[in-house]
UniProtKB/TrEMBL annotation:
Lineage: Bacteria, Bacillati, Bacillota, Bacilli, Bacillales
Organism encoding this protein: Robertmurraya beringensis
Entries under InterPro entries matching the protein: P-loop_NTPase (IPR027417)
Protein name: PRK06851 family protein
Amino acid sequence: MAGSVRNYYAGGNTAKGFHSLFDDCLKDLQRVFILQGAPGTGKSTLMKKVGEYWTGRNYQVEYLHCPLDTSSIDGVIIPELKVGIVNGSSFYTITPRALGAIEEYVNLGEGWDSSKLVEHKDQILRLSMLAGNAKQKAYEHFAEALSIHDNWEKIYIEAMDFQKADDLTRKLVSQFYGSMTLNKESAVKHRFLGAATPVGAVDHVPNLTEDVAKRYFIKGRPGSGKSTMLRKIAEEAQVRGLDVEVYHCGFDPNSLDMVIVRELGMAIFDSTAPHEYFPSRDGDEIVDMYGSVIASGTDEIFEEEISNHKTAYKNMMDQAIGFLKECSEYNQELEQIYTDAMDFDKVNELTEHVQEMIHQLEEK
C-alpha cells in the first residue's frame, strides 16, 4: 500500500515580489538537506526520487512545487520522519537554525565539469540577466494588477454590511468549533495553495481537500470580506488548541485563500477565480458572501466600472504571466547548459547519501 501525497507551494510570484514561506514550512523538521546547484543540475529529480521511494514505503509525503517551473518541485517533506529536502536557491533565503545538527548542505555542483561551463560563461551571464529582468518585469506587472484589484474591491467594500459579515463569521465559528477547546498548543502551518506560474494560475485545492469530510466553498466578489473571514476562523482555531493549515493567496500573500482544520475534517476556502470550484460530493457547502453581506444591486449599479476594472486587471495579469513565461524560457536554456556539463552518476551518489541519512532517521 502506497502512502499519500500532498501538494502545495512554499513560495510564490506575487504582487509583493517573490514571497517565501519556506522557513515556516521547515520549522518542525529535525533534519533538512539543502540542495545547492544551478538550474539543470538534478535537484528536482533527486527530490522526486526520494519522495517516490518513501511514498512506496507507505509514508505520507509533501511536495513543495516550483512556481517558476510546473514540472519541477522545490522541496519534499516526510512529516513522520521530520525530514525534508529543499532547493537552496538564493530566492528562498532559507535560514539555518543549527547548521550541521539540523541543516546539511548537499552540493550538486560536485557533479559538473567546470571546464564546459567556462566555455559558456558569457551565455550563462546573459541568460541569467535576461531571466532576472523578465522576472522583475513580471513582479512589476503583478503589483500594478494588485493596484487595479484594490480599486475594484473598493466598490464592494463601500457596499458591504460589516455587521452582517461579522455575524456570518461568528455563525461559522460556532458551527465549526462549538464549545470545543483542546488542552494543547495549536500547530500552525503557513503555505500557498497555488501560484502564478509561466503557464498561468495553478492550484492544488482538490488534492489538499481530498480527505477532508466537510468543505465550504466561499463565493463572493473582490472586497467582500473572504480573507478577513478566513483569518478570524484560523485565529479561533489557534485559540482553541486546534492544529490549522493557513493557505495564503498566491497573488497577494497578505490575504488568505484557505483554512484547513484536519482534526475536525473541515476546509473552507475562497472558491472564486483563479481557483474556482463547485460542490461535487456529500459534505460540500457554499458560503455566499455576495448575497449575504453586499448591498443588493451593486453589480448592476456599477456594471461599467466593474467591467473596466475586470478587463484592466486581466490584461495586466496576462502581461505578468507573459514575462514569467519569458523568464522560464531563458531558464530552460540555462538548464540545458548545466545539464550538458553534469555527471549524473555523481548526482545518483548524492541521492544515495541522502537516502542513507533518512534511513538512519527511520531506524531511530
